[in-house]
Amino acid sequence: MLREYLDVAKDALSAQKEIYQVKEQRLRLAQQEYLQLNNTWRDKSTSQTSLNSRSSPRQ
């Protein structure tokens, strides 16, 4: 009976480990996507600012 309990507990632990690994992968992907979007936004913001400063009329 103890052996059966330990087998069930081992299977449950294995399932939890797999779930944790999937969540870890999703977190890494979300962080990569955030960094990519942030860099893209920053680059566009910088080039827009640069474009505006070049095209603004001087007085």
Beta strand %: under 5%
Which oligomeric state applies? single chain
Helical coverage, percent range: over 70%
Main beta-sheet strand count, sense and barrel state:
none
- Please compute the radius of gyration using only Cα atoms: 26 Å
Number of strands: 0
Number of helices: 1
- N-to-C series of helices and strands: H
Which helices and strands, and how do they pair?
Blueprint: H1 2-55
Written description of the protein model:
This protein has about 60 residues and is mostly helical. The chain has one helix and no strands. The chain is rod-shaped. The relative contact order is 0.06.
TL;DR?
The protein has 59 residues and is mainly α. It contains one helix and no strands. Residues 13-40 form a coiled coil.
List key phrases describing it.
59 residues; mainly alpha; 92% helix; rod-shaped
